[in-house]
Design goal:
The chain has 300 residues and is an alpha/beta fold. It contains 8 helices and 16 strands. The strands form 4 sheets. Strands 7-6-5-8-9-10-16 form a 7-stranded parallel beta sheet, sandwiched between helices. Strands 12-13-11-14-15 form a 5-stranded mixed beta sheet. A two-stranded antiparallel ribbon has the order 1-4. The chain starts with a strand and ends in a 6-residue tail after the last strand. The relative contact order is 0.13. The model is unreliable at 1-31 (pLDDT under 50).
Length: 300
């Protein structure tokens, strides 16, 4: 974003009777030196394009680099169908972009939308150049998160690993944890447009949250092997049913039941825009971190 610069210049006007000083203010639009420089790694993806637009519109930050192996050389502003080009070409070299931004001495954040296999190296590179990282890459292995935590701790460098950037999804998870202390039966039902990666990371995270709370769910048929009863996630009996329904929004519902009642929590996602408020919040928070934090819910 640009900052309004208005230097103050007094001017002296002479007359036959007296001399008066009148203020004159000239204003010009200049890039703010205090803006957080944001590099989007995975910029050509749908979520990457949405992130570029969201960061461009947000106060106190600006897109400073776009990295991807697709559409290399294309202006990221044009790729995002923005009215004006950003004059930032997509580059297939994270190190080159990091080196360019680090010379400005500005606060930098790398947003990682890439792949679980490349996350560690990406964060390591960003850390070497003194930049923080926001990682939104589903299905990162626990070993990778542990290694990242050690890396960030040694370098005193902030990193936020977010299993989800959807604030609605986080609120559903928090409400489900509260409900789990009052109900003995729980089922997760989700719908997705594609059968890829089922059960979804959201369902896996909810089941993980509900496990190890001292509660055993669905005791009546916890050991059943009937396929229609869904897949058991974890060791505490939480079951998930994954539906593939093209045309419907991605939906996650957690059903709890007790004597005489059913309590349901539902969250629908209609498009990738639902992740942008959480992303902007993550960028604002990670610049103050000096270690790894897992989960955006720590800042809600």
């Amino acid at each position: 974003m640009a900052a309004l610069s208005c230097p103050f210049h007094p001017k002296v006007y002479k007359s036959s009777q007296n001399i008066k000083a009148r203020p004159s203010i000239s204003c010009s639009m200049q890039p703010s030196q205090s803006n957080t420089k944001v590099i989007v790694n995975g910029a050509a993806k749908e979520i990457g394009r949405a992130a570029v637009i969201a960061v461009t519109r947000a106060r106190g930050m600006e897109v400073a680099g776009a990295v991807d192996s697709h559409l290399v050389g294309e202006d990221i502003g044009k790729v995002c169908d923005m009215e004006d080009p950003l004059e930032i070409p997509i580059i297939n070299d994270l190190t080159m972009v990091l080196g360019s931004i680090s010379q400005s001495k500005a606060t930098g954040v790398v947003i990682d939308f890439t792949d679980p296999s490349t996350v560690y190296d990406n964060v390591k590179q960003a850390t070497a150049f003194g930049m923080k990282s926001v990682v939104y890459v589903p299905r990162i292995k626990p070993d990778t998160i542990t290694a990242l935590s050690v890396l960030c701790e040694k370098a005193s460098m902030g990193c936020l690993v977010a299993p989800t950037l959807s604030i609605g999804s986080i609120l559903l998870q928090q409400a489900a944890i509260s409900a789990s202390f009052h109900y003995n039966n729980v089922e997760i039902v989700e719908s997705r447009a594609s059968p890829k990666d089922l059960p979804s990371p959201d369902a896996v995270q909810i089941a993980r949250n509900l496990s190890n709370l001292g509660q055993i769910y669905n005791r009546q048929d916890i050991s059943t092997d009937v396929l229609a009863r869904g897949q058991v996630l974890g060791e505490d009996g939480v079951r998930v049913h994954s539906l593939v329904l093209p045309g419907l929004p991605s939906s996650t519902t957690v059903h709890f039941s007790g004597p005489g009642e059913v309590y349901s929590l539902k969250h629908d996602i209609t498009n990738v825009q639902c992740l942008m408020p959480g992303l902007i919040l993550a960028i604002r928070k990670v610049v103050r971190l000096k270690n790894l934090v897992y989960g955006l819910e720590k800042f809600l």
